[in-house]
Specification:
266 residues; alpha/beta; Rossmann fold; seven-stranded parallel sheet; globular
Length: 266
């Protein structure tokens, strides 16, 4: 027998668990589904006022409705993440609605084609960089002034949502990931002294809702060799984003957190 056979309650029955984002306001982009929705739901569960942002207005509204149904606080603001003015309006909306902006989780990355660089069309390159690098730059550029008005804040960038490490056809993905990480580090360096922290999270493979459930055979094979024998879930990503956004990580700044199960470099 081990100590696990004698579980002790972590919280007394008459105690309420402290919500670690109580009263804070968070923008979560790409929150109409997948990782973004998981982040928005978890942040609301932890007491945040969540502004749900997504190009898919229906998905954004559904996420906000799900949060409110769970007795959380949320509103939605749909729009095109590759439009700089959308992010200006989004940050202003968050401040107008809740009075301040504490947290931004930018997850605008889109999936890249598995095509060698010379075979990638200019339209694909432009679309990938517009969303994965420029879109996040536009977001942070609008978020930072509003955060500074409140005395600081936290930015968490989700740098990718798919792909294996260093395989043929992953060049455009690697380029946008590295560019986004560099932007994140620049924000951390330039604004850390003013109270703004910035970190990145890099999910490694599927980000599937239920772990291995519903993941293709090819995706499972992609995860072979990882010490942790499963794919990451959207909840793994959300929990990591929550830690980086919370007061539990106040000395973590300019860091990239890979969610790869111990597979090493991505």
């Amino acid at each position: 027998m081990t100590y696990r056979d004698f579980p002790l309650p972590a919280v007394r029955a008459d105690e309420e668990r402290h919500q670690i984002l109580q009263g804070q306001t968070a923008i979560v982009t790409a929150a109409g589904s997948g990782i973004g929705r998981a982040v928005a739901m978890l942040f609301a569960q932890e007491g945040a006022n969540v502004v749900v942002a997504d190009m898919d207005g229906k998905g954004a509204e559904e996420t906000a409705a799900a949060i409110e149904a769970a007795r959380g606080r949320a509103c939605f603001f749909p729009g095109d993440p590759s439009d700089p003015q959308y992010h200006v309006g989004l940050a202003a909306f968050a401040k107008h609605r809740y009075g301040w902006l504490d947290i931004a989780v930018n997850g605008i990355a889109v999936r890249s084609p598995s095509t060698p660089l010379a075979g990638i069309s200019l339209a694909t390159w432009d679309a990938m960089t517009a969303n994965n690098i420029s879109g996040t730059f536009y977001a942070m550029r609008a978020q930072i002034p509003v955060m500074l008005e409140s005395g600081g804040g936290v930015i968490v960038n989700i740098a990718s949502v798919s792909g294996a490490a260093e395989v043929a056809g992953s060049g455009i993905r690697r380029a946008t990931i590295e560019g986004l990480i560099a932007l994140t580090k620049a924000i951390a360096t330039e604004y850390g002294a003013q109270g703004i922290r910035a970190n990145a999270v890099v999910p490694s493979r599927a980000g599937a809702q239920g772990g291995n459930a519903g993941v293709s055979k090819a995706q499972k094979q992609d995860g072979r060799g990882a010490p942790i024998d499963r794919l990451e879930t959207v909840h793994d990503v959300a929990e990591t984003a929550l830690f980086l956004a919370s007061s539990k990580s106040t000395y973590i700044n300019g860091t990239c957190v890979p969610l790869n199960g111990g597979m090493g470099e991505q």
